[in-house]
Design a protein that fits this description.
It is a single chain. With 415 residues, the chain is mostly helical. It contains 18 helices and no strands. Helix 6 runs parallel beside helix 9, helix 7 packs antiparallel against helix 15 and helix 8 runs antiparallel to helix 9.
C-alpha cells in the first residue's frame, strides 16, 4: 500500500489557525457576533461551509475574540472606544405604594381647591346681582375693574402654564377662576363702571384664552399659534405687574404709566430676541417662563396691596370678611401638596405666599385690631402649620427621603 501524500495530512493553507469542530455549531441567531453579518462575511474564508464553524468558535476563545475585534477595528477604521464604551441606563425612580397614594391624594386635593375659590367669589357675584336688580349701579363702583382685570390676566397665564404641564386639576381651578372673575367684570360693564372698549378687549382675550388652552390640551393647536399666545401673555403680564405695583403707592409717588410702558417694551424686545435665537439657552428659557412667573407675582402682590391699605386705613379692616380670608388660606393651602410633589417651585411659591400672606396675614391684621377672636386666630394658625408639616412629612415618605429638609431642598434646587 503506497504511503499517503504528505499534503493530505497537513492543515489547509487557507485557514492555518482554524480547526473544524467535531459537533455541529449552533444557529447564527444564538451568537451575539452573528448580528454583525456584513463584517463577519468580510472576514470569513472563501468556502461558505466554513462560515458557521468560524462564528460558533469565536465565543469559545477570548483570545480569538480579541484578535477578531482588533482585526475588525483595523479593517474598518473604527475608534477604539466603540467596543469599550458600556452604556449604563439612567436610574428609574422606584415607584412605591406610598408614592402612588401621595400622587393620587395631592391631585384630589388640588382639585378640591375649586370649592373654596368658588365660594370666595360667589358672595361678590350675588351682591352685585342684587345691586343691579335694585338699580343701585353706584354700589358696583366700589369694585375696582382694574384689579379684577389683573386677577383675570393672572388666571389665564397660570391656566396656560398648567395646561402645558398637563396638570388637569390646576387647569380646572384657573378656568373656574377666570370664568368667575369674568362674570364680575360683566357686571361692572353693565353698571358702566368699566369702559366699554376695555370690556370688549377683555372679552376677546378671555374667549381666545379659553379656546386656545382647550385646543392645546387636546393636542389640536399648532405649536406656532400656541407660541404666539404664550408670547402675548408674557408681554401683557410683564407690562401689567410693575404698573400694579407702582399704583399701590400712588399716594406717596406720582401717578404714572411709565412703569408699564418701559417693562412692556423690554418684554417685547426680549421675546423678539428669543424668537430670533439671539439669546443664550438660559435666556430663552427665562423668557419662556415669564408668563407663569408674572402671573404668580401678580397674585402674590394682591395681599401686599391689601395689607398696605390696612396699614394706611386701619378702619377698613372692619370691612374685611374673616370667612373670605379663611377661604383664601384654605384654597391656596390645598394646592401646596401637589406643588411640592411635582417639585414645581413657581406653583409652591405662589400657593404658600397666598396662603400665608393673603389668608393668614390678613387674619393676623384683623386679630391685632380686635376684629376676630383670639380662639379663631390661634385655631387657624395651628391648622396652617399642622397642614404644612403634614405635607412635607407625607412627601418625605413618598420619595423615600431621610428628612423633610431633603424634600424642601429638591423643591428649591432640584434633584
Amino acid at each position: 500500500m503506497p504511503p499517503l501524500p504528505t499534503s493530505a495530512a497537513m492543515p489547509s493553507p487557507s485557514l492555518p489557525s482554524v480547526r473544524l469542530p467535531l459537533r455541529p455549531s449552533p444557529p447564527l441567531t444564538t451568537t451575539p457576533l452573528s448580528r454583525r453579518g456584513p463584517v463577519l462575511r468580510s472576514l470569513a474564508p472563501p468556502s461558505p461551509a466554513l462560515l458557521k464553524p468560524l462564528v460558533s468558535a469565536a465565543p469559545a476563545s477570548s483570545s480569538y475574540r480579541s484578535a477578531l475585534l482588533l482585526h475588525r477595528r483595523r479593517r474598518h477604521a473604527l475608534p477604539e472606544a466603540t467596543e469599550a464604551v458600556t452604556i449604563t441606563p439612567a436610574p428609574i425612580p422606584k415607584v412605591t405604594k406610598k408614592y402612588q397614594e401621595w400622587d393620587s391624594l395631592t391631585a384630589k386635593l388640588a382639585g378640591g381647591a375649586n370649592l373654596p375659590f368658588l365660594l370666595l367669589q360667589l358672595p361678590q357675584i350675588i351682591l352685585n346681582s342684587r345691586n343691579l336688580l335694585a338699580g343701585n349701579k353706584a354700589a358696583l363702583f366700589a369694585v375696582p375693574w382694574l384689579g379684577m382685570l389683573t386677577g383675570l390676566l393672572g388666571n389665564l397665564s397660570l391656566m396656560s402654564y398648567f395646561a402645558k404641564k398637563r396638570e388637569i386639576e390646576a387647569v380646572i381651578v384657573q378656568t373656574l377662576g377666570s370664568i368667575s372673575t369674568y362674570v364680575v367684570i360683566v357686571q361692572l360693564a353693565m353698571a358702566e363702571s368699566m369702559p366699554m372698549p376695555q370690556f370688549v378687549a377683555t372679552s376677546a382675550v378671555v374667549a381666545a384664552g379659553l379656546l386656545l388652552n382647550l385646543l392645546n390640551y387636546l393636542g389640536w393647536l399648532p405649536g406656532t399659534l400656541w407660541q404666539l399666545w404664550e408670547d402675548f401673555m408674557a408681554i401683557g403680564g410683564l407690562a401689567v405687574l410693575p404698573q400694579v405695583m407702582w399704583s399701590t403707592f400712588v399716594p406717596f409717588i406720582p401717578n404714572s404709566i411709565l412703569p408699564g410702558i418701559i417693562c412692556g417694551s423690554l418684554a417685547v424686545a426680549a421675546v423678539v430676541m428669543a424668537r430670533m435665537s439671539k439669546l443664550s439657552e438660559g435666556g430663552t428659557k427665562f423668557v419662556g417662563s415669564l408668563s407663569g412667573w408674572t402671573a404668580t407675582l401678580l397674585f402674590m402682590w394682591m395681599p401686599v396691596a391689601q395689607m398696605w391699605t390696612n396699614y394706611l386705613n386701619p378702619s377698613n379692616i372692619e370691612g374685611l370678611s374673616a370667612f373670605s380670608m379663611l377661604l383664601a388660606m384654605i384654597g391656596n393651602g390645598l394646592m401646596i401638596p401637589r406643588a411640592v410633589f411635582i417639585r414645581d417651585l413657581m406653583w409652591f411659591t405662589g400657593s404658600i405666599w397666598a396662603s400665608v400672606l393673603q389668608g393668614w396675614g390678613n387674619l393676623a391684621c384683623m386679630y391685632c385690631f380686635n376684629s376676630i377672636s383670639r380662639e379663631f386666630f390661634f385655631a387657624t394658625t395651628f391648622g396652617l402649620f399642622l397642614w404644612l408639616g403634614f405635607t412635607f412629612w407625607r412627601d418625605t415618605g413618598a420619595y423615600g427621603n431621610s428628612s423633610p429638609m431633603t424634600s424642601l431642598k429638591e423643591l428649591i434646587f432640584g434633584k
